[in-house]
Design brief:
alpha/beta, Rossmann fold, 2 domains, 14 strands, 24% strand, globular
Length: 262
């Protein structure tokens, strides 16, 4: 029987297959280990995008979404924690990113399944289709940005992503800028990360971080992997993340024996 009381899983690249499906064996495994420990999701996805997986996995522990900007309780159907990017910084980050060839998205509120963008391009269409969201064109997004969005997401070719990150971190150091996938960069409220969200959730539940497991595959997972009692990286994920993990696995199912989850 595991001594770990909370296990936090990233979705994309961790629980999900490349096509976004939840494999049957992974679903059964997560349902099985839910009998031994609390299970939660820690993802950059929005509530509308993450909710189908929360329901399929029967997650009842609060989840970390929007990379930690929101901690949402699926039982009470409400956010327990919700932080936004200040309007001034949101406008500056948005303008800075558009100096490069990117496809921008604005996420307004927890209960809003719409992503807002100046122009719906093929990459935006592909993204919202994959995440079961909808897109709406806002030719002049300044007013929307001024209200303080939950996050900004920029899609770009992988070769421009390092320059985009560096430019955003130099121009808008107050916010958190993170690479969420090989072609995605996300801007979050100041000080926000999945690790911060996990720590907040542990404090809320009265569970020491030392008794948690965090599993992920990208730079955006690094903070929670480092802060958890046991940090686990996926073998097929970002190679740079593996050095920050205590364990590397090809499939989350390997955790059954590793943690004695029976």
């Amino acid at each position: 029987m595991t001594c770990h009381r909370l296990i936090a899983f990233d979705l994309d690249g961790t629980l999900l297959a490349p096509d976004g499906a939840l494999p049957d064996d992974v679903r059964q495994f997560v349902l099985e280990i839910s009998r031994s420990a609390r299970v939660t999701i820690a993802t950059g996805r929005s509530l509308a995008s993450a909710r189908p997986y929360m329901e399929e996995l029967k997650v009842r522990t609060p989840v970390v979404i929007y990379h930690g900007a929101v901690v949402y309780d699926p039982v009470q159907a409400r956010p327990l924690r919700e932080l936004h990017i200040p309007g001034r910084e949101a406008r500056r980050a948005f303008a800075t990113a558009q100096r490069l060839p990117v496809h921008p998205q604005i996420y307004r509120a927890v209960d809003d399944p719409t992503v807002y963008t100046p122009r719906i391009t093929p990459p935006i269409e592909a993204f919202v289709s994959n995440e079961n969201l909808r897109a709406e064109e806002v030719p002049n997004p300044d007013a929307l940005l001024s209200t303080g969005p939950l996050k900004l997401l920029f899609i770009g070719e992988p070769d421009i992503i390092p320059d985009l990150i560096a430019t955003l971190r130099e121009s808008v150091p107050e916010v958190t800028t993170v690479r969420a996938a090989r072609n995605y960069v996300e801007v979050l409220p100041p000080g926000i990360s999945k690790g911060d969200g996990l720590a907040w959730l542990c404090d809320h539940l009265g569970i020491p971080l030392s008794l948690t497991v965090a599993v992920g595959d990208q730079e955006s997972d690094r903070d929670m992997i480092e802060r958890a009692g046991l940090g686990v990286a996926m073998m097929e994920g970002d190679p740079a993340i593996r050095s920050h993990a205590q364990v590397v696995v090809k499939s989350v199912i390997e955790l059954r024996d590793l943690l004695d989850l029976r």
